[in-house]
Give the backbone structure.
Amino acid sequence: MGRRGDWGTRSHSPIRPFTILERRRRVRILFVGDIVGKPGRQAAARLLPGLTEEFSPDFVIANGENAAGGMGITKDTASQIFGAGVDAVTLGNHVWAKKEVYPYLNEEPRLVRPANYPAGVPGRGSAVFRTAGGDSIGVICLCGRVFMDCLENPFTIADALIETLAPESDVILVDFHAEATSEKTAFGWYVDGRVGAVIGTHTHVQTADERILPGGTAYITDVGMTGPADSVIGVKKEIILSRFLTLMPSKFEVADGDGFLSAVVLDLDSSTGKATGIERVRRTMSPSGGE
Ligand SMILES: [Fe+2]
Ligand SMILES: [Fe+2]
């Protein structure tokens, strides 16, 4: 608790053991950051069992928008992620990269794409899940608009979705998939007290600003990537370096090598829908992973 008061208000609350009373109403969610390509899928498969044992989450969510070759997701790669112990997969701006997934987005209720695409596109932008303990978790996925495609306004779409999900959800979590830290921070403040957690995804670099906002919403600007360690946010570093040096276009390829996993553990009170803890997690598969 050495960081208490860093923000001048309530500090973030690390994960800690629970009293018996708290345990009855606690929902613990492990949220895994953007799984990138095969190294990311392998890292999830190898590291999630240990994390599950360590934290005993009631529900596991992963962002899978980069699961298939770094862009998009397929039925096969989604199955691998579910097989690794993930209960629900959120997506992002790369949701449409693999056309074969379009019908699967309609068929698979555990996939949640950004909600602020125009009406009529495949899939669902929110869903309510139930844990083995009987708590209901509303999950909303939204894309930001700063330096990204101009989708519907995520702030006003959130208003409507929270109103829709609230009656049937003990807790609500938003995956806010966005580029700009300002937009993510603003969104956290906008929904503070109305959802249990806002987890930023998309930039693939874990930020150290996890906290519980004054209204009770756990917030982190970006949970970080689950992908190849020796890369530029998942892509072969040689390709990105060449692009910066020459400004010539080049095809992105996922980097090889061992992956690492980035996540947050969230504790939410199912009687209030508010957060009581948020803690960053990073695990590597080998010493070359940089930890
Ligand atoms: Fe991503
Ligand atoms: Fe993205």
